[in-house]
Design a protein that fits this description.
Blueprint lengths: L1 H10 L3 H9 L5 H17 L2 H15 L3 H14 L5 H12 L5 H11 L6 H24 L4 E2 L2 E2 L1 H27 L3 H27 L4 H25 L5 H25 L21 H9 L2 H13 L4 H13 L2 H20 L6 H15 L3
Helix pairs in contact: 1-3, 4-17, 5-8, 7-8, 7-11, 7-17, 8-9, 8-10, 8-11, 10-11, 11-12, 12-16, 13-16, 16-17
Bound molecules: 3-methylbut-3-enyl trihydrogen diphosphate (IPE) (2 copies) and magnesium ion (2 copies).
Length: 377
């Protein structure tokens, strides 16, 4: 198995580029092989079809801004450079385990709606994806998640202390890049999003402790922790091609609605069994109550409510009891309720989009909305 994986890695030219520089930080090479095994498995054995079919539709959406995304990759990579070898290794690891990059896509398409993509659009895309990356690195520490994007998470490989510092480093590098290019409008839009994301994450922890969440608070949490950055991506993108404050605000609100739909979808994944490259079935364990559960709890009679709360409070680590609760949520329409809510936010976003002049960029962003709703990871 070990030898096999090294063979695969050699073949895909990752051994020299990827594994060798990592070696000096590990006593045991197998520690490094494992995350790569995850990926090679995904790519070569199990997930080929799934990944290919998903990337096909995303690929189609990305096509009108393909050249810009290529330039983005370079910009993103350069902005994270460090002279500290371990940081450079970790950012190399990050670059090679990239996600769907939907936020830069929202930046570019929002820019394209009102003019030509330019250097400022590039700065906005790089800044926002760096911040997104930083928040994920931190989020995996907070959630004690060991998997991200089909690889081991940074905290799983290098431990929490390194992950916290890498996240901070990324935040600082993002700001420095924006400052070097005098992107003050961008910094303004994004700083607000960072504040909101931190508030959303902490509010979520507060509610997991007190367990006094309701639908309204759920929406506050996801608006802050997730939608704020997608809103910032759309507003920042638009602000690089139009100066009209009303238009920029319109795009911010569009992004907010899509971001809410995006997180509802993400919360639905947690109830599923498919491989999405990160852990599933951990929300109840973490006492994180999301829309499907909040809805069935609200509907339940008093004794059922007590049963549900008791599992969340005392039996959140009991796999059998958690499975029972998950079944209850499914049988009582929790998932379809969340799906309806998701569709509602998609409609709200599309309504805003339809007030804009028709253009190829508008068509692409409409497809991106459809992707966010129907994505399988
Ligand atoms: C994951 O975002 C974090 C959430 C806000 C749910 P993405 O699903 O966009 O993550 P990557 O960048 O594609 O991995
Ligand atoms: C999303 O939170 C990450 C942030 C918005 C910081 P989650 O914890 O719900 O997302 P995943 O499932 O880890 O990507
Ligand atoms: Mg998480
Ligand atoms: Mg989290």
């Amino acid at each position: 198995m070990y030898k096999e994986s090294v063979k695969v890695l050699r073949k895909i030219d990752w051994y020299e580029k990827f594994l060798s520089p990592l070696k000096k930080y590990f006593d045991n090479t197998k520690e490094i092989i494992m995350p790569i095994l995850f990926k090679t498995r995904n790519l070569h054995i199990f997930g080929v079809h799934k990944i290919a079919s998903m990337s096909l539709s995303l690929k189609e959406i990305k096509q009108p801004v393909e050249a810009d995304l290529k330039q983005f990759d370079q910009h993103f990579r350069n902005a994270m450079k460090s002279n500290v070898a371990l940081l450079d290794t970790i950012t190399y690891y990050i670059v090679h385990s990239k996600g769907k990059q939907i936020r830069p896509l929202f930046v570019f398409l929002s820019a394209k709606l009102f003019g030509d993509i330019n250097e400022a659009s590039q700065d906005a895309a790089a800044f926002i994806e760096i911040l997104h990356t930083a928040t994920l690195v931190h989020d995996d520490v907070v959630d004690e998640a060991n998997k991200r994007r089909g690889f081991f998470s940074i905290n799983a490989l290098w431990k929490n202390k390194v992950a916290v510092l890498v996240g901070d480093f990324l935040f600082a590098k993002g700001f420095l890049m924006a400052l070097e290019n005098d992107q003050f409008q961008l910094i303004k839009i994004v700083s607000n999003a960072i504040k909101e994301m931190s508030e959303g994450e902490v509010l979520q922890i507060e509610k997991a402790r007190k367990l006094d969440i309701n639908e309204e608070i759920y929406y506050d949490i996801i608006r802050q922790k997730t939608a704020s950055l997608i809103a910032a991506a759309c507003a920042a993108g638009a602000s690089t091609t139009t100066k009209d404050p009303e238009t920029i605000e319109k795009m911010r609100l569009f992004g907010e609605y899509i971001g809410i739909a995006f997180q509802i979808k993400d919360d639905l994944f947690d109830y599923g069994e498919s491989d999405i490259g990160k852990p599933t079935g951990i929300d109840i364990k973490e006492k994180k109550m999301t829309l499907p559960l909040i809805h069935v709890l609200h509907k339940a009679d008093r004794s059922k409510k007590r049963w549900i709360m008791n599992i969340i409070k005392k039996y959140n680590n009991d796999k059998k009891k958690v499975r029972e609760l998950v079944s209850y949520v499914k049988e009582n329409g929790g998932l379809s309720y969340a799906q309806d809510a998701l569709n509602d936010y998609r409609e709200r976003a599309l309504e805003i989009l339809m007030t804009l002049n028709p253009s190829p960029a508008r068509d692409s962003i409409e497809k991106l909305v459809a992707f966010v709703i129907s994505r399988n990871k």
